[in-house]
Design goal:
The chain is of the alpha+beta class and 95 residues long. The chain contains 3 helices and 4 strands.
Length: 95
Amino acid sequence: MTEVEGEHVGALTFIYDREITGVAGSIANVQQRYSAIIKSSIRIPLDSDNYLEVIILRGDGEEMRALTGHIMSLRGVKHVKLNVTPLNRIHEGKR
C-alpha cells in the first residue's frame, strides 16, 4: 500500500486461531477502535481451530494501514492481507 493519502475502499482479510486465549476479544477491541472506517465484516470457520475474517473498509488510507498493523500484531493471527483502492482512481474511470 504505497498510496495512503486520501479516502480508500478496501478489504482486510486475515486468518486466526480461535483456540489462542483472548484473540477473539482482542480482535473485537481493535475493530471497535476503528469502527469509523469499518463498513461490514464476515467471519467463517475454516476448520476446528481457524477462522477467516474479512473486513470491508472505507476511509483514510493511514487508518487502514494502522488497523492492519494492529491486527497483524495480535497473538494467534496467522495471515493478514490488505487490498485497497484509492477512491480518486474509481472516479477517474468515469471520465
